[in-house]
Amino acid sequence: MIIERKEYLEKLIAWKDKQLIKIVTGVRRCGKSMLLEIYRNYLKEHGIEEEQIISINFE
């Protein structure tokens, strides 16, 4: 089950065209990775190529 994090997603979308690195922090298992996955899907749906998205998982 995916919990929509509409407020946080809207904040990421608002900062989309700013040339800043977006960092999402929070306690363990609060949904950070899922939020970024939803954001990545949003970017793909709106014409951003997979090669333009950088995602690093340190686990």
TrEMBL record:
Domain AAA, first and last residues per copy: 20-59
Pfam families: AAA_14 (PF13173)
UniProt-listed InterPro entries: AAA_14, P-loop_NTPase
Source domain of life: Bacteria
Name of protein: AAA domain-containing protein
Organism: Blautia wexlerae
